[in-house]
Amino acid sequence: MKMQRKDIKILLLQIRDDHKVRREELESFAKYSELEIRQIEILNVFDTPHFQSDVLNGFDALYVGGASEANVLEPEKYPFINDCINLIKSATEIGLPTFASCFGFQLAILAFGGKVLSKDKDYEMGSIPIKLTNLAEIDPVFKGVKDEFPALSIHRQYSVDLPEKLDLLAYTEQCLHSFKHRDKPLWAFQFHPEVDRATVFKRLAIYKEKYTESEEQFQKVLDSLVETPESHNLMLNFVNRVLL
């Protein structure tokens, strides 16, 4: 029997400490998936730093969000990182559809033995054009999305090489931006498909000092922001073409 949209249950692995951003991230994932908020249950790693893979039981998919308050390369400082990596591995092993954004992308790279790099300046921030590979044309999540579509991205950590079994779908001059596991329903995005322009305005105001060095740079990033409907479609495609 075909699953109904109203019956979908998703676990959101949330890596957010700020309470405003926690709520806003949940609302964004629900909005662009066209699901009710009640259909998404949260596991926040700042509240629950240790967990087993059985938290996936009873869910139809796993979402993994971003993390302005944590660095994937500092597991000694953020004790939840290894459990997050193991959760992504477990979801992949059991074939649970997974949609991982930003910090989730970096966790997935590490989960499959890849390398995450870091930079303190000249990192991507704002609305950026995302280039597609040939594989994206036939991918169910990317099919119909045009090349060089704008997406919102703010990240100091990044990757330039993919581990085996991960197929590249999107990239920029600076780094890799999306991949799918070759044999399993896992998609990961370095940009934020779930975030719109208004949300970035709010988020940047909260994390302004972390990401920008001056009022002038902050203003420049705000001025660069555009609406990103194509990137939001990726979330909807995941729900409609993978889950349903």
Q: What does this molecule look like?
A:
The structure is a single chain. With 244 residues, the chain is of the alpha/beta class. The chain has one domain (5-243): Class I glutamine amidotransferase (GATase) domain (Rossmann fold), CATH 3.40.50.880. The protein is 32% helix and 21% strand. It is built from six helices and eleven strands. It has helices at residues 19-33, 81-93, 103-111, 197-211, 215-224, 229-243, and strands spanning 10-14, 40-44, 61-64, 98-101, 117-118, 125-132, 149-154, 157-158, 166-171, 176-181, 186-189. A nine-stranded mixed beta sheet has the order 2-1-3-4-11-10-9-6-7, sandwiched between helices. A two-stranded antiparallel sheet has the order 5-8. The protein is globular. The model has no long low-confidence stretch (mean pLDDT 93).
In short:
With 244 residues, this protein is α/β, with parallel strands linked by helices. It is 32% helix and 21% strand.
